[in-house]
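Input record (one chain):
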Amino acid sequence: MVKRPTILLSNDDGIEAPGLLSLWRALREADIADLVIIAPSREQSGVGVGITWNRPMQIRQVDWADNTPAWSVDGTPADCIKLGARVILDFHPDFIISGINPGSNAGRNILHSGTIGAVIEGVFRGIPGAAISCENIENPNFHVAEKTIAMVVEYLFEHPLPSGSFLNVTYPHSAQNEVKGFKLTRQGKARWVEDPSLHCETEHGPQYWLGGKLEDEPEEGESDISYLKEGYMTAVPIHVHDLTDSNELKRRRDAFEDFFSKKSRSSSIK
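The corresponding structure, as predicted from the sequence alone:
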């Protein structure tokens, strides 16, 4: 008998976020896997792969529809995966699906996204997965994403990514009923940049909201950013197993080591 897979659902918007409910509903209706949920107790947007070292964290079991096992952790998305693996679960999930995030994680936004941070922590543990986001923050089209999220999971079931990789999936805001199509593509260059605004003046100095706005950069050919503008759902395979710039390592190694050897000898002579 073939073992039924288990998918761990998480996010960075918190256990009560509408996007998490949409993600659960889409996969529950597809009935292609057993589901468990471990998500932050409150919003953790922008924390990336950050973890909590400076205080203890509370784990709380949460009532969820259809008796789906669910827990909240008052930490980051990566904390959720760590505590899920070492404390909460007594088994190894087959996949991690994180989202649905309101706001784009396409382009360089992957470096800040807590939604993606949960998946990266899973990849570090040998658990494959995908991060799901919708472009628009204020009015995310979760209803469109719900229609095809199960297809994303089925694709990963049938065509596993190599160890150390995950899929970053984004839905375009222009698609309010149906996406134009589906594109497997590369990461673009656009990113959220700071847009500070003064919050208040205090006796210790001014306080600012960091704020943010999406900044486009010229795209060289096809990318998730350019396809999203055309109304396509995009999926980008992201590799995090080894971030070494292998070309630069090969090109610079001898000269780098020679430089420091000469400098060290020169310093010892003096």
